What does this fold into?
Amino acid sequence: MKKEVLEVQSEAIFRMGEFLRNEGFVELLPVIISPLTDPLNHSVYDAKIPYGNGYYSLTKSMIFHKQLALREYPKIFIFSPNVRLETEDKKHTGRHLIEFVQLDLEVKDATREDILDLVERLLVYTMQKLEEKFGAFIKSVNPNFHIPKTPFERVKYLEAKEKLGSDFELLLSKEKGDPFFLIDIPIEEREFYDRLSDDGKTLVDMDLIYPYGFGEGMSGGEREYELDRIIMRMKYKNMNLEDWKWYLEEVKKGIPKSAGCGIGIERFVRFVLNLPSVKDSRLFAKLPGEIAL
Amino acid sequence: MKKEVLEVQSEAIFRMGEFLRNEGFVELLPVIISPLTDPLNHSVYDAKIPYGNGYYSLTKSMIFHKQLALREYPKIFIFSPNVRLETEDKKHTGRHLIEFVQLDLEVKDATREDILDLVERLLVYTMQKLEEKFGAFIKSVNPNFHIPKTPFERVKYLEAKEKLGSDFELLLSKEKGDPFFLIDIPIEEREFYDRLSDDGKTLVDMDLIYPYGFGEGMSGGEREYELDRIIMRMKYKNMNLEDWKWYLEEVKKGIPKSAGCGIGIERFVRFVLNLPSVKDSRLFAKLPGEIAL
It folds into this structure.
């Protein structure tokens, strides 16, 4: 691996953390094992570890821990290592690793628009800092590199799908020259915890899509925080409420209203450096379906 | 949890990373699952996850990954989340969590003395930055807080044990007013990878011991890197070489000479803030023997 890739990746996480601290965030330590983790909206192999009288699961995202942490502090982030034992068909997408790191952040009482604004400024700040320090290298490997203008374009999911068909996300990613947000994602496409909008069909959420075909690099949204709505959403997903007693007990005690997102670090570095695959953006990359160091 | 504890923990990791970057280090992303992890020198429950044709273990430390990463870059660090499924007898030590974060660092061609010097300066820098920002809070909870003088005292393990008996580490930790290094730890007390000194009985390694009874907060040393010596040390530990083929294959290809260490974040925060237990130094703390969020 080129030493500059490691330097860019290292600087990126430093500057992201610096930006968020300057915005009043605290960094939490990651949670790797918990009886409670993200159900995701696609199926991965289970990673459960028996211990004592129960078992621990590996963290697939810290979504619920973020909600609980907001009881203690109103703006939080974590460089959160996530293990998702993806199926082997995802081996050659260039976009999937079975362990990766996301910058997971959440803000009490925030709206989706607050998070879109924050993410735009975070990415621009980080790219500016990377350009200052590694501009020559970055441009040598990525002739398309430039600092995107804010605000990023907002594209409505259903409108884009109607216009361009089911491959719209990849088509738009290839066509655009700047990152953009895909918003108002339909309820059936996402987990139960993103907030349902008043139309009853789409969520108050978003993905960030990188240009030049690099695809999705961040997901987030406003969250459900009221017990009755959460139970309704779990039932819509045919989830067994008994499996979710840890979470539902905490919701009964009260969790804050919030919005937040998770930004994939390897995908961000891949985008900035125009790398063939996310596996080229870090050491010890593990592709779906393989056992690797 | 007091919001100031989260602020101090967040600032501590920021300043540690900043210090190391200024010293020419790059930060790597953590490895959570691998077929290869630290055997440790004490027994913990196994955390193995079947996947594809093999299995992954949870990272107990990134020692071997650090050695391999030095092929790519000469100074590296990771905020490495480690899972060690400790036995329940360690529940009430105030010093053990089953998941914790260590600042794991390694330097190509370094000596133990280089690392002792680095760690002293790292801790002093971080404590100074914490005092600047949170001095009033820190002194309100920790009347003993002060910036330690460098160099820290070096105490030889066998000499201290002879003088004070087998409880020497705790006795010294309670008696001292400043952090100190315990050096030259006997071969039977440590893993195979710390370098054996010419006396054939002790290792070129160290622990950092905090004062006021807080005990050990960092371990490290020079490392073995030559195949014949590594095999000798594995045999001394009665390790099954077949189980270590991943590692031995890499050693055959060549791993750099190095020294390094791992600094426990929760223990550092506990020391700075005079907290009753490491569980008070982070959110979602998990004690040995229990299933907790």
The longest strand of chain A covers residues 99-108. Helices of chain A lie at 3-22, 63-69, 112-141, 157-164, 168-175, 227-236, 245-253, 265-273. The CA atoms of residues 160 and 168 of chain A lie 6 Å apart. The two ends of chain A are 15 Å apart (CA to CA).
